[in-house]
Design goal:
heterodimer; A: mainly alpha; ABC transporter involved in vitamin B12 uptake, BtuC; 73% helix; globular; B: mainly alpha; two-stranded antiparallel ribbon; 14 helices; 70% helix; cell membrane (chain A)
């Protein structure tokens, strides 16, 4: 029982990290960035490439090295996100929503199969694994690496929350979410702020990618597809566009999946998650913490 | 959203000779003639198989065009209905030993139900939710087919009976069915319902204000698309006589979408040409297989940025 909860929380913190980028971009410009899951994949591969370039290290140095790689990867995926926004999304900001969604699908495709062309279709094995012996807390088996990864995830999420609620930058983001045109009249550089929001969101996805690579040990070019869907589900459960809600949604989805797997068996895990998504959209489309938004004409 | 919508390029400048040629009403008949004469040029089993697949792809594209092109709803799991149709007819035909034709009513019922089950909760929401829910639905169907015993698990169903004997006869049957389906979709698009779809696509709030029951109209588009997809699934099952979950991945949905976007959303000749190109091109460019999907992704972006109306844009009769 406690094991199920712990597993759920652990997977859920990954979901939450990826979902935050989704939610942030959606909250500000109301765009579903389908390519977000692929930025997670890009992060995993960027981390892989950087680790490969650094070469082997002793296992004692694995953790600091991994954290450094994490930061470098966040910069790489952040810049990738900014580029993506600049090329594929910004020119279409005034176009019908359908065009934006289709470009997002195209971007996702281009990233997935571009990576396949570069890195090959076979899964790659991550060169660094975090070692450590597991110990038991209240009957749940916990490994130190899980603790480290959850710690990093919590740190990143707390940092994001501070950024959005406490800083000038965050205030600009919230203003644009409310009304882009008025924000521009108030002297906010809307394009620059949206770029930076993409940077932050993509960087979080990249961080999650490296963490997933280091934890599961295997990465491939399609790894972002499913997690993108799951992250969206998490964001919907918590209330898309709402940061604490999204974190809650991620953890909740992790828990639900963990219990769903236990009851129904692993092969039904994804069906269960998407079933929850459809159920939530039917019963409470605004999510747990989201507020009702009326579509402006 | 503000009132600025994409202006259709074809309507604000006088039509060039090329676009007049493209909008000729005989283009459809010419296309049918090409399809009917093709086996006289090359009737090897391989060529017939490619042509039959292309015809089925045309039917899928025509169905998705109702949803995406006419009504402006993005369906990213369209292949789910294709799978539902193929599996329904396959399971009924092999387990109950029914002739394939007798499964068609069941296929229609099942796909309508599936369309309502997915459409009813999500069509009330913002359009982008629909996109991702349909994506999830596509995965649900594929994984379910993979896990259940009745659908044969990962290896799928084999030994599905043919509709008619011989690949040539089946090709002609497919061409006839697909032509009727394309014609039917085009007629639907020109009907009262079709005008309502277009209205919803251009401005949902204005449509609602003018008395169009937008939810019901969207659901009608979604269900119509589902039926088209399901019937294409029957053809697919009869064509290959074996189906497995691997045929119904997100990739296939994306390819159908690609055909619709490339050809021109809402344009009947456009999506027909788009589907033929998308299904035949990989056979010609086998060497580029690794870069194909990358190229598709880039093309999707490029088309949306540079030519959102597609290669063969829809003709707008309502010119001011």
């Amino acid at each position: 029982m406690t094991q199920l909860i712990w597993n759920g929380l652990f997977v859920g913190s990954f979901y939450a990290l990826v979902a935050l980028g989704y939610s942030m971009v959606y909250g500000i410009i109301k765009l579903l960035n389908f390519a977000h899951g692929d930025l997670y994949m890009l992060g995993a591969f960027a981390g892989f490439a950087i680790l490969g370039a650094v070469g082997g290290v002793s296992s004692a140095m694995a953790l600091p090295l991994l954290l450094a790689v994490l930061l470098a990867t966040m910069v790489v995926t952040g810049l990738a996100g900014v580029t993506l926004e600049r090329i594929a999304y910004r020119p279409l900001r005034r176009a019908p929503r359908l065009s934006l969604l289709i470009t997002a699908v195209g971007a996702s495709f281009a990233l997935e199969y571009g990576m396949r062309a570069v890195a090959g279709a076979d899964p790659r094995v991550y060169p660094v694994r975090l070692g450590g012996t597991s110990f038991e807390v209240l009957g749940a088996r916990i490994t130190p690496q899980q603790l480290v990864l959850i710690g990093v995830a919590v740190l990143l999420m707390a940092g994001l929350n501070l950024l959005v609620t406490r800083t000038r930058e965050g205030r600009a983001m919230r203003a644009i979410a409310l009304d882009p045109r008025t924000s521009a009249l108030m002297g906010i550089d809307v394009n620059a702020v949206i770029s930076r929001a993409f940077f932050v969101g993509s960087a979080l996805a990249g961080a999650a990618g490296v963490m997933a690579g280091a934890y599961y040990g295997k990465i491939d070019f399609m790894m972002g597809f499913l997690i993108g869907l799951k992250a969206f589900t998490a964001a919907v459960i918590g209330g898309i566009g709402n940061i604490p809600g999204t974190m809650l949604g991620g953890l909740l989805l992790g828990l639900l999946e963990s219990f769903g797997t236990f009851w129904l068996g692993g092969e039904w895990r994804d069906v269960f998650a998407f079933g929850v998504l459809i159920l939530f959209l039917t019963v409470r489309p605004t999510g747990l913490l989201g507020e009702r938004v009326t579509e402006r004409v | 959203m503000s009132a600025t919508k994409v202006r259709r390029l074809g309507t604000d400048s006088p039509p060039s000779r090329a676009s007049k040629l493209l909008q000729n009403r005989w283009a459809g008949l010419a296309g049918l003639l090409v399809a009917l004469l093709a086996p006289f040029v090359d009737a090897t089993p391989y060529a017939l198989s490619v042509m039959t697949s292309a015809a089925i792809a045309v039917m899928l594209a025509a169905g998705l065009n109702i949803v995406v092109g006419y009504c402006g709803l993005l369906d990213l799991g369209y292949v789910a209905f294709f799978a539902v149709g193929a599996y329904t007819s396959g399971v009924l035909a092999t387990r109950l030993e029914l002739p394939l034709l007798a499964t068609v009513p069941a296929v229609i019922v099942v796909t309508v139900v599936a369309g309502i089950v997915i459409g009813a909760p999500t069509l009330r929401l913002r359009s982008d939710y629909l996109a991702i829910v349909t994506l999830g639905f596509g995965e649900i169907i594929r994984i379910t087919a993979n896990n259940l015993d009745v659908t044969g698990g990962p290896s799928g169903i084999y030994g599905i009976p043919h509709l008619v004997e011989g690949p040539v006869a089946f090709y002609y049957l497919t061409v006839v069915v697909v032509s009727l389906a394309v014609l039917g979709a085009a007629r639907l698009g020109r009907s009262r319902l079709g005008r309502a779809w277009r209205f919803v696509r251009e401005d949902e709030d204005a449509a609602e204000a003018m008395g169009v029951h937008t939810y019901r109209v969207k659901l009608a588009a979604y269900v119509a698309g589902a039926v088209w997809g399901g019937l294409a699934g029957v053809l697919f099952a009869a064509h290959l006589s074996a189906i497995s979950p691997g045929s119904f991945t997100f990739l296939s949905s994306a390819l159908v979408l690609m055909a619709v976007v490339l050809g021109g959303m809402g344009s009947t000749p456009g999506v027909v040409v788009g589907a033929v190109v998308i299904s035949v091109l990989p056979e010609i460019l086998r060497d580029l297989a690794d870069y194909r999907f990358f190229l598709f992704g880039v093309l999707l972006i490029a088309f949306m940025l540079l030519r959102p109306q597609g290669l063969w844009p829809a003709r707008s009769k309502e010119v001011p």
